[in-house]
Amino acid sequence: MQKKKLVLLTGAGISAESGIATFRDSNGLWEGHNVMEVASPEGWRRNKALVLDFYNQRRRQAKTVNPNKAHLTLAKLEQHFDVTIITQNVDNLHERAGSTNIIHLHGELFKSQSTLDPALVYEMMGTEINIGDKCEKRSQLRPFIVWFGEMVPMMEPAIEHALQADIFAVIGTSLQVYPAASLIQYAPKKAVKYIIDVKIPMTSFIPNLKSISASATEGTQIMAKEILTLK
User: Fold this and answer.
1) Engineered SS bond to 107: which of 145, 154, 172, 190, CB 3.0-4.6 Å?
2) CB contact at 8 A, 202 and 178
């Protein structure tokens, strides 16, 4: 029997419970920086050293945290469903929890990218990218992060998965960051849909939508029990 397709859109709320800082809760400041200083092409052009140091610190922090119960619950659902996780998060907590099919919409913290040729992407062994670290074309390496104002190249594959969903869940995101926030609208009308967050975002009418006002760790367990009856 073919497994039902479960598509999950995860945001900062799921990583926050592991101790990774978010920026939208503090007036656009991220670890004391205006996000446009450290998460935009303009900020990169102005001060590469600042941007590199910022993400070096984010990698060091990410090394100190572990996947939480929400990450682990989603990984276990692969035993019962055809699971695709579409995440706005750049950390690797889903991978570390055991999930195997993950689309990172906004890039990956533990990869670097050529400034000259965006197709040149490298796995990082450590936590540092420094001034003078260059790609094979002798161009400065930058974080493999989709910054504000840049295209989201993984959006098309994400839409393809959303269109096929039997169950679509939004976990730990305010649905304020576009184009990611639009993905739930691509899920079929007949698909069962969930929104899990401490503060349920305002949504236009979406058929078959269930809201679970809870933390990611609590809400994913509630959802998991419900959808296991739908197999």
Assistant:
1) 145
2) no
CA–CA gap between residue 76 and residue 83 (Å, rounded): 10
Residue 140, amino acid: Q
Gap between the Cα atoms of 31 and 10, Å rounded:
21
The model carries a pTM of 0.93
What is the C-alpha separation between 82 and 58, in angstroms, rounded?
31
Question: Model confidence over 27-48: pLDDT tens digits?
Answer: 555 677 788 999 999 999 999 9
> What is the sign, positive or negative, of the torsion defined by CA atoms of 133, 139, 144, 149?
positive
Nearest-angstrom CA–CA distance, 151 and 146: 7
Q: What is the pLDDT of residues 184-225, one digit of tens each?
A: 999 999 999 999 998 877 666 788 899 999 999 999 999 999
Active-site positions?
Answer: 106
Q: Which residues contact 123 (CB under 8 A, 6 or more apart)?
A: 110, 111
Write down the residue that tokens 């609208």 correspond to: 185
Peptide bond into 207 cis (omega under 30): no
Does the pLDDT value for residue 5 go beyond 90? Answer: yes
- The pLDDT assigned to 199 comes to 82
Nearest CA-CA partner of 84 in 176, 173, 12, 187: 187
Which tokens in the block code for residue 169? 């869940």
Q: Residue 109: helix, strand or coil by DSSP?
A: strand
User: Among candidates 8, 117, 107, which has minimal Cα distance to 58?
Assistant: 107
